[in-house]
Records
---
Amino acid sequence: MVRLFTDELNVGYSDRLIVKNLSVHIPDKKITAIIGSNGCGKSTLLKAITRIISHQTGSIILDGENITKENTKVLAKKMAILPQTPESASGLTVGELVSYGRFPYQSSFGRLTKKDYEVIDWALDVTRTKEFKFRPVDALSGGQRQRVWIAMALAQETDIIFLDEPTTYLDMAHQLEVLELLQKLNREQERTIVMVLHDLNQAARFADYIVALKDGQIVKAGNCEDVINHHVLRTVFQIDTEIGRDPRTNKPMCVTYNLLKGDS
Amino acid sequence: MTKEKHFSRNFSLKLIAAIMVFVGMFVVAMVFGAANTTVKDVWLALTSHTTNEQITIIRELRFPREVGAIFVGAALAVSGAIMQGMTRNPLAEPGILGLSAGANAALAISIALIPSANYLTIMVACFMGAAVGAIIVFGIGSMKKGGFSPLRLVLAGTAVSTFLYAVSEGIGLYYKISKDVSMWTAGGLIGTTWSQLQIIVPFIIAGILFSLFLSRQLTILSLNEEVAVGLGQKTTQIKVILFIITIMLTGASVALVGNMAFIGLMVPHVVRAIVGTDYRYILPMSAIIGAVFMLLADTLGRTINIPYETPVAAIVAMMGLPFFLIIVHKGGKVLS
């Protein structure tokens, strides 16, 4: 039995649905990637599941409870969210920012306890951001900053972590660094990771489960063999792909592609 | 590096330094003025029951006036800091987002329609006016999708404020009370009495205490709305409470001194340069620096052109305008 799933979920504005009748199970302790073209509703789906935006009909169930009925602070101890490019409007120091990850555990006036400091230190350690602890977040490079935000999400000590395009704006090496960090967290601590990814080959390489969306509906959900293939990608992205194998990981990868001719 | 709590100790030092500056400024404000008074007079006025002419001036005129300056400065600075954090807009300020103008209009209306209005009535009217002004500005700002952009809010705020000031003027002219209204709105701290302070100051203290209680929530909100939700904040609820606090603080200030722009804009930016962007530090520091600033402005107003008063609002505006231009020039960078 999975802890988190949606059932016939509809999300959108009154006149236009963005996510349509979508039912998906998020496998526990796995890495799930959501892929799809621009505007297909992948970010919207992520935001709905994490209660950032409300949904019209259908339900989102976590641990047998509908999340709309659950106390938001309780949810914050179960799932953490890293939004797309958090405004860097943060002259907060790295240590201060990460300490706010403890927010769900504190009372209104609460000071940080010894346990809080331990978790914060651990989060800084794992993400290798401890050396920046007293530096302002916005003085860091993109890759460092992303690791700091991940540290904040980790300080929340949740079993499930959602990330909306965690690699955007990063160069290749830093993209890999972030994804490997997430993979490590998944493998070593059995965190469930759900992320929106743009890069198909990154999805194939790092995700255990891939959800391919088009027009707010699932085209195919399954492991990378099921999803990263000529047929599915043709439907999802309207591209004609040549699928090969990554010589190092033996995962399927898109070697080259063309736009489909015509309007199919 | 084992400076685990280094930052907070650092803040304590800064806070102590600020309090010392504040006390120094208070003494200066009490000593200097149109009447010749000495530190000794001030000391006697505050600590003894002795009376002579100097001491009476200090006790009955200058002391309440400076207490008013302290609370108005603190209230406007905290109010501005909250608004900047809430809207993630470096230009947000009660004077710019329509709160002050709304309170002013309400003040004019209440003077015109309720000649017997007492201080409490006027203050409540100012609260309502500030709320109406802000609601109109935010309403216009969010009419279009993706509203609340810094620019749109400032434009809407300027337009609505101009309109509301025109309303105050119109009411003043129509009811032939222009003089009363402008005495109030441009008079600054002149004629502040203990009985006025008794009514208004509790609201300011309550507002500031509530805001300190919510300072961590404000920091999270200032980062990013989605982050705030993800951390388990009831964002709508928190925003409504913060909004009410800003209205209380601004309304109370307007009821006491009338129109006073720029303090709410400037002080939080100065404070950020000192303590960083965590509102746990920004809010208390803003209260102190706001008070210091207002004491300074009022003292200048009383002493630049003895025996005439230079309006405090003019002094604040003269210091504030260049600052405003710097922020516009630097864009949002100042906030971060």
---
Amino acid sequence: MEYKGKKKKAPVKKEVEVLGETFEKGRPEGEELGGWRQKLESREEKLRYLQTGERYWFDKDWYGSERRKNPA
Amino acid sequence: MAEAETKSIDSASVKMIEKAVRDGVNTAFDRAETMKPCPIGMVGSCCKHCGMGPCRVPLPKGREETPEEKQKRRGLCGATAETIAARNFIRMVAGGAAAHSDHGRGVAELFLAVAKGEAPGYEIKDEQKLLQVALDWGVEIGDRSNQEIAIDIGEIALSEFGKQEGGVLFLRRAPLKRQELWQREGVAPRGIDREIVEIMHRTHIGVDQDYRNLLKQGVRAAIADGWGGSMIATELQDILFGTPAPVLGRINLGVLKRDEVNLIIHGHEPLLSEMIVVAAQEPQMLELAKSKGANGINLAGMCCTANEILMRHGVPLAGNFLQQELALVTGAVDVMVVDIQCIMQSLTTVAECYHTKIITTAAKAKIPGAIHIEFDEHNAMESARAIVKTAIENFPNRGKNIDIPEEQTDLVAGFSHETINYLLGGIFRASYRPLNDNIINGRIRGVAGVVGCNNARVKHNENHVAMVKELIKNDVVVLQTGCSAIACAEAGLMTPEAAAKYAGEGLASVCEAVGIPPVLHLGSCVDNSRILMAATAMVKDGGLGDDISELPVAGAGPEWMSEKAISIGQYFVGSGVFTVFGVNWPTLGSNEVTEFLFKDFEAIYGGMWAFEPDPIKAAHLMIDHIDKKRKALGIDKARERVLYDMAMRRELT
């Protein structure tokens, strides 16, 4: 991401450059609105996400209610 | 109060009910007045499974029946009132499971055709979900192309329906404890079709005559629906059309436009409607519309097809089941195209009073008086274009008797299980942990799935909205599908702002932090499988027990009417969820059967049914159940937090 600078008045110095907004401006439209799955591009990324995001089903190292490290 | 106002809480619907009266149009609201339900059939005490009947075995009115009377309360074949009620009930399950699952089969057939390159216009849009299902079903991924993987998935999906042994594959997604319970109780389905067929066999005269055994098969077939046919439909639709993500939409009859061609897509399958969405945007169609004096083509949805195209494209939603006739009463609908399920035959009669053309598209769902343009997956785009063209050419035929209500509401839809998981943790750490933590700390009291139909025997949308408002006021986050979701969206409950207005303080604070509404739209009625996945993720994340039956959750169908709703309720219950239905209850003719479903089921399956027509009382039954589960988990009281200093720590050792 490219950071944008923003000039502001400061009490001692006349003007300082500060970090500008880091969010995307405006409201996404159409099918992109709320879309997040397109952030995962390659098959490797998608498989990795399945292991982490959907770890309840797809990660062998996941210890949830059903796979405890130290069984109760 | 004007008479129409007693029939719906939705002002747009009230206006159209009044207009229908003025126009001399007969609607479901009129028929509900003139034709009362059969009191014997309504409670499951009528058997018409053979030519010796129908046999009616009603309970005596207003008093306890004597043992002698009970002994005599039988059909000609000797079947007791218990057998008759249980038979009727599980035939409803079979009808519902068949509807959802045949929908799933239709999607699987299209899916395989797409994978083989035999369905032009369709493509695999969600590789992520393709890989997910491949991992679920043990399909090799490696360096294979999406098409190769999809062919394997399509063939496995189709074989799930006709399978005789081995079990439905998606059962493996359920919590391990639940899978063990299903195996132990003998209700793990062997295949989808087999369990439905077996219900039809067992309920034939002279076969299964033990109500407990009949109801057990009902659970088995319902699980084959929820964790089988419906889940296959949801997952394959996601692969073909994309997994839903939050999308802003608008809802209610006010989405119809006076100056544009109005084409309503109604039914349940998104297969053809996805193509209609594309065809309606083609430049030549827009030009044709302009040449006919229209300013554009306005697509709108109705019922669950609407939920599908809303979630994936933001196509506005005109209404739910009881609004289908009312949409035509506006006089502004040029074409209503229908596929399968919940389509009133009276549409063609209502359409005759205006200029509207009704188009059927499914070989298995035709209506006399409608135009039939059959959906052909090998040539879907041509079918879609023919439909859009019919609508455009009908635009100049509109009469002057047009009245489009102004009402339309914003909503945010598209909360698939995957998106909820993402919203709670992002790509870096998608997780149900924040939900579980907030349930444990008490900001969220529990989770409710409120789903199902409209029913003309009760005031349109009233039960849904009253129940859901009561639940969120008491910090219960609500997941919704189908016509229930549409009702609450029309009431403005599906925007993030609704949290501050209607939700309890704890739930509102969580909704504000995550940026979600207190009532989440998860899709169409086959998408109740998404609710099963969300519940399973809650279990697997930990801290709330080892099974769905231990979660502080509950389900409801406050305005149910279809057999599909009974099947959904039965698989909620069979998955361990306490589920309450309103309106009427189809086994009240047998106290034993009703008692078995309402009480004994809990000891067997961890979930049980309840019946309560008052939506507020029903909401409190759900809240009481949630509190019972919270107590069992030991999270019913806020625990005192003590910061240990070093001395205190040393004392511990």
---
Amino acid sequence: MEMQEFIKNFGAQFDETEMSEFTSTTKFRELDEWSSLNALAILNMVGKKYAVILKPEEMKATNTVQELFDLVKSKKN
Amino acid sequence: MKTYIKAISYYLPERIVTNEDLVKEFPEWTVEKVAGKVGVNQRHIVGENETASDMATCAAEKLFAEHDIDRSTIDFVLLCTQSPDYFLPTSACLIQHRLGLSTSCGALDFNLGCSGFVYGLSLAKGLIAGGIAQNVLLLTAETYSKHIHPKDKGNRTIFGDASAATLISSDGFASIEDFCLGTDGRGAENLIVKKGGMRQPNPKNDLIFDESANPSSSDYLFMNGGEIFNFTSEAVPVLIDQVLEKNKLEKEDIQLFVFHQANKYMMNYLRKLIEIESERFYICLENVGNTVSSTIPIALYEAQKEGKLQGNVLLAGFGVGYSWGGTVLKSI
């Protein structure tokens, strides 16, 4: 599992935020366009691209892209 | 025998609920942000004594007037609603009488939500192709506002009430091609109104609020957003492939994709998933919201007005049931 690709997949779930704004330290909950709909899309993306089924409450504990990446990675192993 | 959509009109109830109105009711909530995300600026809501059948009657009257249609030629009425006036009789029978349609007219209701318009077209096509009817009046009418708890700010932001009337006949502006339909009742619990049916005839008064102050009760409309999101993102791309294959078309052969107008974010999510450019993907819910079974005919009406109904138009409806369906219209 590779971080750059994860960031790209993560950023693709947003309509207005520029892709260049996404880094591993991005606090996604602070983005202007963040909403529960993005969370649903991200959970769906994680399931499809990484074959990891996250529960919404598990995702709630993450705030940065890195934290979510680590969570997905830990579930994958 | 070929069947065609001959004419479409729609009716919106008088009362408008704007985002500003919702801000006043939910000052602690980010109405503007959420409304922007789902792409709805205002929605029309029925009055207390106005029902889906009242709206459907108005939509049909508009259809007759706007397109100069002789009502005596209607020989079948199909009403798609999940908000009938009564358990019995069928609302379509009440509408037949109110519209002054011939008594030799067939009439029935069918209970579907967001897939309802596509299913209605398939039924109408079958009636005409089978020589059972010649001019089918397909009415879609929904009043989810009556099922939604007043404090359910999310669903109140998304859904609007409306009715559409579509005439299906042996001639018209777009032929109705082949269908793909699907059902998965395992999803029934994820979008449901339990109260009032025979399994739960009386209110349970089981209202609870979650940590975000969202109400949940079997007496009102319940939608599990996450599950519906997952269902849609699984089912719709497959449906589109199936509809294209059945009609022997490629994605590039479709001039316009008209999906059920669920909400703007969800629609764009599906659009990107299926890889359709925004120019060929019609979005029309800013002023009406998600009107359930009427979103597709309203979108077709507006797209036609804008001159965008050209060539092959792919329709896809999906939602409560789960139920889904797609077809292609060929504009002539």
---
Amino acid sequence: MDPESYLYIGILFFLLGAVISLLPLPKVKNYTYILSSTGALSFALLSLHLLFATPRNLFSAQISSLFNLAFSGDAISGFFVLTISILTFAVSIYSIGYIRDLKNKGLMGFLFNIFILSMYAVVLSGNIITFLISWETMSIVSYFLVTFDREGKSAKAGLIYAVMTHIGTAFIIILFFLLYRYTGSMNFSDMKNLSSQIPENLRNLVFVFSIIGFGTKAGIIPLHTWLPKAHPAAPSNISALMSGVMIKTGIYGFIRISMDVLGQGPEWWGIAVIVIGAASSILGVMYALMEHDLKRLLAYHSVENIGIILLGLGASMMFKSNGLYTLSAIALIAGFYHTINHAVFKGLLFLGAGSVMHATHTKNMEDMGGLLKSMPYTGLFFLIGSISICALPPFNGFVSEWLTYQSLLLGFKSPSITSKIISPLGGAALALTGALAAACFVKAFGISFLGMPRNKHAENAKESSLSMIIGMGILAFSCLLFGIFPGMVLTVLQPVSFMLTGLYGTPYQQGSLLGISETFSTISPMAILITLIVMSFATIIFISSIGGKRKIVYGDSWDCGIPALTPRMQYTATAFTKPIRMIFKRIYLPRRELKVSYLVKPFFVKSIEYKGEITPFFDRYIYEPVIVFIHRIAERVKLLQSGSLHLYLAYILITLILLLIFGT
Amino acid sequence: MQYFQFLIIIILSPLIQGTIKKLKANMQGRVGPGIFQPYYDLIRLLKKDMVISNVTSWIFKATPYIVFTSTVAASMIVPVITTESPFDVMGDVIALIYIFALGIFFMALASLDAATAFGGEGSSREMTVAILVEPMMMLSIFTAAISAGSTNISRIAGSGLIFSPSHVLALTAFLVAIIAETGRIPVDNPDTHLELTMIHEGMVLEYSGRYLALMEWAHYMKQMLLFTIAFDIFFPIGIANNVEISGLAMSSGIYILKMLFMAVLMALIESTRAKMRFFQLPSILGGAFVMALLSVLTYIMMGK
């Protein structure tokens, strides 16, 4: 079949899913997600066509002289379609079980399908008008999904999301206008060919606007403020899609404009992207560490991972402007590899968080504990997600972060001194991020899944339904697969690398080895995994040959002689992160209040009230002043809008007169 | 022969630990246990029954194996007496740090598993120290990797580069990282079980019997590995780059001297320094980070 038919079949399945969800068929509604998972498979086949064939137009319809609805695909689109498809497939299966207790199932099914279609539309758009329509559809549908719970908090999160995303869109519209103005074309492919006609200053402007516009969607710091509010507010299957792939459409837009259409830029572009990436990754993970709301923690980690992706992409841009195309290809592959990895493990973690919330009715880690025993599969999959996101071998995060390290390390080969200095600093930032992420996931997994249950809900938690487990299992398996078979992912990435850098075959693969010839280094997560397994057996044999068979006695944990440890005596998430809060207090600006009331002062304490928080720096010192300022202006403008009809008539009259005077 | 050089680490690491303890005791005017004491301890532990807390999950039982085998995997990558290291394709020096991190990650999880405050305390502190150490370690390795033009550890060792200004700075930072990673004074006190100060000991507090033996052994191995890596990447003089018997014998002799030097150094530091308060650690580790940063910048600016 030709790729177009895969496209139409895919669209058909999603539309069918959307329509059937709205019909009054309560039994069927739970299973419409089978349609969306089939649709995702069809799109996955389409993506393979796009990756391994020449760019082609998939659909085109001239609506008016200016407005041409056009979809087309090349390797970059193909890669993103594949990423969306993998996650959609797993999330759809998960949703069968997840939505069972949801109110408004029909609306959910409808929005779910349209949301996914709109994301496909964004990455397949062939011209700027189609792109903007798809982009806005995606934003609006996701707004409805964020506010799906209709609670006060979700509504506020939705409002912030809507405002921020439209600020981003405004910048995107301006940059599209600039591109159209100087190339005279609306098609991305024509723009690319004509982009050299754009004057230097305007190219820079377009680049900056693409960072702001698409960066808002991707959640780079300091434009991330909506992300940790909106993602947790949505139902968990939607959070997985939003964090896993929706923010990647921001990355897609950035790549499309700044790396594809604009082509090669000056060196400072790449450096700027590296700096933004480093800042986003460090600050993202730092704020994640202080979160005790499981989903907000994961949302902040999305900020971190977008930062890591940008480290790779920035290094690629930097090398390209210095003419080092081989290195540029390595860094590019690092960024893309991390993009697909993040989609998989962050999707998995959000689904895991959804299962946990489903079972314990809370998002607060301080109320969980001991869940690994009551929810063994969810626990195992969440652990796999945690290991992957911490970039520990042999899982997938390790491979992409290793590639990112390699490309930053290779910065010393670039001729300019700025690049030479900035790239090892990027590497140090990545190391810091990695260590902070490990601490964060020791906390997230350790506090919620290990130890003793901290309340009744956690104690009575039940394992999720089969479809939810399968959904998570697919993603967990992908985490391992993308880790131990890096060559598989590399095959998919080569066409993308060829398109943007003109090079095939770096980094190279050889059996299970992934290698970079520039630093003479290789890794093989497969070999590491095999070593771990073989050595484990060897160790077991060795131990029993020396020690023989020994008894295991089960007893209480060491309690210093005080009988019976209670769950309240366990370390809490707050306590766990206290040293980090103290050490980085310049960043966190922690605040605490202690109120003690006495029966007889100072001996008999009646109650102690403790309140601690960290200062949300960006909200308080950047966004709040802006909001206050806007409010103040609004107060002034209000005078004009007094509500008096006579006044409004007067305005119309004055406008008319002015127009008559100046219009002629 | 080159296939088995990782066994040197596995077999001799308790001896290094014993030597350090003996040296330390002598420096402090004690007789101290013999240098083979760690072997006796390990065998004794392996032959004991185990007591396991009944609130723990499978993580607690899997962790000793993961910690031990990941350390073994790390030692397979590192060239010990010859740079003809056949397993080094498995990972480079960056992978090495992440394999160590895998062990730390699971150890920190396991210590939260028994639901005691001591475990949580150890886990929290260990992760905090890791946050301060990892960037510094990575930067000092960057210096070596950039100057050798490779991150493959055998190749760095084979390049035979020695002291240049940037290397001295990086090595100093790396030594601080070793002290922190092996839980030695002034970062942590390996001989204490005082709950207020312990980091590593807090994490393994709930372990007994063969699990404890595995954890302890892995700890010894990691210590010896870090010593070896320090020499491999900053002072590879004497390491053989072939597998001929004469070369290997020479290289083994030099290796023993190097390890002895590190043992004396560690004992000296432990005997002359006091343990620092936990929240003073950022100053020493931060200082080392600055040194590592300077070493990279020095190399880039001066080219040596």
